[in-house]
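Run Aminotransferase class I/II-fold pyridoxal phosphate-dependent enzyme through structure prediction, thanks.
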Amino acid sequence: MTFYSTIGKNMILPQDVLIQSKETQEIPGAINATIGMATENGKVMKLNSLEYIIKNISSESYLPYSPTPGTLNIRQQWKDKILKENKNLRQEYLSQSIATTGITQGIDIVANLFSEKGDALILPNLFWQNYAQIYNVKLGVSIHTYDQFNNENKYNLEAFKNTLYSIKENKIHILLNFPNNPTGYTPSKEEFKSITEIIENFLVENENKSVILLCDDAYFGLFFEDNNKNSTINCLEKLVNNENCLIIKIDGVTKEYYAWGLRLGFITYYIKDDVLRNEIMAKTQGYIRSSTSSGSTIAQIAIQKLLSENKYILEKETNDNIIKNRYIALKESIEKENLESLTRILPFNSGYFFTIELPKKINAHEFRLMLLEKYKLGIYSMDESNIRIAFSCLEESYIPELVKNIKNCIIDFNNK
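Sure, done. The structure for Aminotransferase class I/II-fold pyridoxal phosphate-dependent enzyme is below.
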């Protein structure tokens, strides 16, 4: 006898990040580099103007329900923001944004509307584990992965192409998350051009197959190198002309506006066909109505007020530059310590994280424990080989010590 549905039987609560973060917190004086947030002086980063707005919102504004797709003002403001930041997009193809309860819900909504058992999902070999929960565990979608970087530590365009062309399923979901979690990589202009050409050729050669392009832009804007300041949807825009391709952008205030707990995300469709776009918009609202009904009014009102003024711009630039300076310090320390002579550091140029692929003789989980116990540094071991470090929550002054401790820990293992 069982009370569970098939989804209920398959569902789990992943414990890896939660357990590893908790273990770090239990070590007195340990530095926690597992956190997917930005911190400064031990506290979360914030926008002072947003804090002021939230403290002064009247109950008449935030207590009523918001409309199912979100308040009209915030939806239009977010669409305007996307158009301003993505000059290649055609305004008439871009839907009005629909508010969601965080980016995760946005991905879940899109997955439920467009994917099912018998579909395929393409992901890099290292990816945010919630993608598997949503697409595979809940919906039965087959996941096909490609090595994100080749032997020369370059973005692996050949592997991406081979994986795409090897898929037998007729409906293919391509999830592009840049800046990437966990690697912290965003493709260059030239790489995005190649990605676009690969998908374009596939669409033309396989008119019987449909491709859903999902741009997960959770870390949008945190670009640290000039040639990698690239928006996914802006680079892939021309694919909208293919009738067998659907382009979706999912983003939110979480990382862009240092507002993790507000849980406000957006779904925005880029579709040439007016009838199809309107139909999908209605179905998206119907799905929200059948699940959360509507999102947080106070989050929408607060961000609406924030975007209506310019006070936040300098504050956001200040915070973004703090993270960028940590990135620069990290690159300099890696070079100074010659860390790449001991291990493989996957390319990174954006976002919150960087990833190290440890030497084959070192188990990542054992390495994490030694690093924590001996050097009081908590990092996230993703599997047997790879560790992820969040530099977004590390003080710049500590970063040289971090790199040195990782180097020394590798040497400890090599001397065993």
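The radius of gyration is 22 Å.
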